[in-house]
Design a protein that fits this description.
The structure holds two protein chains of two kinds. Chain A is of the alpha/beta class. Chain A contains seven helices and 14 strands. In chain A, the strands form three sheets. Chain A has a six-stranded mixed beta sheet, sandwiched between helices. A four-stranded antiparallel beta sheet of chain A has the order 2-1-4-5, with helices on one face. Chain A is elongated and about 70 Å long. The two termini of chain A are 28 Å apart. The longest helix of chain B has 35 residues. Chain B is 70% helix and 6% strand. Classes of the chains: A alpha/beta, B mainly alpha.
Chain lengths: 279, 299
């Protein structure tokens, strides 16, 4: 499968500090990709590089084999806190989208907003946070992009609005041939919608892969402190008074004696990589 | 893009148009009777000066007052229209919305700058024509600051620089209120500094004994010189002042063989000075615009 997004030694420096360094990624098309990491990990920087809002300090970023360019018709973007012109009516915002985008689908936009019960006459600033997020998503979808990039799309929403937003997103993904790249610092909401995971922290990519493959390739081991620790594949280890707790990348090999192996959940997998010391 | 620019800035357009409309009506209502009245003579005689003073008291109070207030319009344009233009986009995050549409940010910015700067320069030109027409009978001298500062092309160039400076600070500071403060703090001293510091020396002033407002010349300095044309010594000056303490200074000076000498710019230099000053402000506006484009393109 052609990679949707390929970065090679990608880095971005703001003044003296590197926000992103040495980022090598090859992400598949047709997936819903979660970019997970704590605040300040470099997620927003990576997404802005993908959308062409920022230029790399070093390395390259390519979308569908072409270097990422600003204002690309292939990419739709909903920035963090889904910014809109607050004094525009929803209709004005759609008109803006129509005026600025060649492939604009007014019908899709109107149908989607009608389905959500968002009146076109209302000013954006008077809509609820969840409705504003939906309008921002509609603007991005009506561009008919191949890649939809969402930066912390639900961070500022209440749980119900989160669920509605994600449901709307999934419906669109199912309808269109759409690849979604979304960032989040909350893992719980991703499990149901995403099938590909990228963990990033401190400006570096820790792990990237298909979520099912990743879950299959990792085990949680518990055992007594005295048990021999495997030499390779330990992602993260915690030791209590009596028990040790390991997250292990198994590679399918046998488990050392004395350990009890359990399947791993997505949240624990992410956390273990965020805490992991290895580069 | 044109529609978007209009939609984003129609409030400012309406505000500026209202200001110009009110000013135009005021100027017409008071200016027509003023122009119908007998124009005062402009010779340097006492009778003439008296009629002119009466004329100015009768008709000139309002336009002169308004002219004083309108001095601040340029810097206000920079603060209220220029500074938020980009700073608001950065502050509210909407730059990310605008620049991920299908229009390059260079085009986005060019259309915005051309339309906003063009509109403001045109508004400045209209204001300058209205004020020129209104003030002409009251201040018939071009070099008078109230006339010179409102004349075109100088006045539109002030507006251009103020707005460009506001956009510039917005692009680099990225916050609305600090950008407004910076525009105010930099434009005002610059504008007044050029008027008092640079304007008198665009050309070397002439010296001679003629000149004055009445002839349309801009007199920079007036002093007494002795018969050889040298400035008075301190003792000669004291002698003159002592003798003239209860009489006519000029008559005493003439008796002592002193005469008046002035340094001045002749009225004929008006347009030259207008274009030099407009070039300074317009050139700075152009340089700032180039920096804005560079900053926005760099991302």
């Amino acid at each position: 499968m052609n990679p949707l997004l390929e970065t090679v030694r990608l880095g971005k420096r703001y003044r003296s500090a590197w926000a992103l360094r040495d980022c090598n990624l090859s992400l598949p098309a047709g997936r819903v990709i979660a970019l997970v990491g704590p605040n300040g990990a470099g997620k927003t920087t990576l997404l802005r590089l993908v959308t062409g809002l920022l230029r790399p300090t070093e390395g390259t970023v390519a979308v569908f084999g072409e270097p990422a360019v600003p204002a690309s018709p292939l990419t739709g973007f909903v920035a963090q806190d889904h910014p809109l012109y607050q004094r525009f009516s929803v209709r004005d915002l759609l008109r803006m989208g129509h005026a600025l985008n060649v492939g604009w689908d007014q019908h899709l936009a109107e149908r989607r907003l009608a389905g959500l019960g968002i009146p076109l006459e209302r000013r954006a600033g008077t809509l609820s946070g969840g409705q504003q997020a939906q309008v921002a998503l509609t603007l991005a979808l009506a561009k008919r992009p191949k890649l939809l990039v969402l930066d912390e799309p639900v961070a500022s929403l209440d749980p119900l609005a989160r669920r509605e937003f994600m449901a709307g997103l999934m419906a669109s993904v199912a309808e269109e041939e759409l690849t979604v790249l979304l960032s989040s610092h909350v893992v719980a909401e991703l499990e149901r919608v995403c099938d590909y995971l990228v963990v990033i922290t401190g400006g570096r990519v820790k792990i990237a892969g298909d979520i099912d493959d990743l879950l299959a390739a990792h085990r949680v081991l518990t055992g007594p402190c005295s048990a021999q620790v495997p030499l390779t594949g330990v992602v993260h280890a915690t030791r209590g008074d009596r028990h040790a707790h390991l997250v292990l990348r198994t590679g399918g090999g046998p488990i050392l004696p004395g350990w009890e192996a359990h399947p791993i959940g997505l949240e624990e997998l992410v956390l273990s990589y965020l805490q992991s010391e290895e580069p | 893009m044109i529609w978007l620019t209009w939609r984003q800035h129609r409030g400012e357009v309406i505000g500026v148009a209202t200001l110009l409309g009110v000013l135009g009506v005021l100027a017409l209502v008071t200016g027509i009777p003023m122009r119908a009245a007998d124009a005062p003579c402009l010779q340097a005689t006492e009778a003439c000066e008296h009629t002119f003073r009466t004329f100015r008291e009768q008709y000139g109070v309002l336009p002169l007052e308004i002219a004083t207030w309108l001095q601040i319009v340029a810097v206000l344009a920079g603060v209220l229209i220029g500074a938020p233009l980009l700073a608001r986009e950065y502050e509210h995050g909407t730059w990310q919305l605008a620049w991920t549409q299908g229009v390059s940010r260079t085009r986005w910015l060019s259309v915005k700058l051309i339309l906003v700067l063009g509109f403001m320069a045109a508004a400045g030109l209209v204001l300058s024509l209205v004020m020129g027409w209104w003030l002409d009978p009251v201040i018939p001298v071009g070099f008078h600051p109230d006339r010179f500062n409102f004349a075109a092309p100088v006045y539109p160039s002030y507006i251009l620089l103020a707005v460009a400076m506001g956009v510039f600070f917005g692009a680099f500071i990225r916050r609305t209120v600090p950008a407004m403060a910076a525009t105010f703090a930099v434009f005002l001293p610059l504008r007044l500094g050029v008027e008092s510091g640079l304007r008198p020396s665009y050309r070397a002033p002439l010296s001679g004994d003629s000149g004055g407002w009445a002839s349309g010349n801009w007199v920079l300095e007036r002093l007494f010189v002795d018969s050889a044309g040298r400035p008075l010594t301190r003792s000669a000056e004291e002698q003159l002042l002592n003798l003239a303490s209860d009489g006519d200074l000029e008559a005493v000076a003439r008796r002592l063989g002193f005469r008046q000498s002035t340094t001045y710019h002749p009225a004929s230099r008006f347009w030259e000075f207008q274009f030099i000053e407009a070039a300074i402000f317009g050139g700075l506006a152009l340089a700032l615009t180039a920096l804005i484009v560079w900053r926005v393109r760099r991302g």
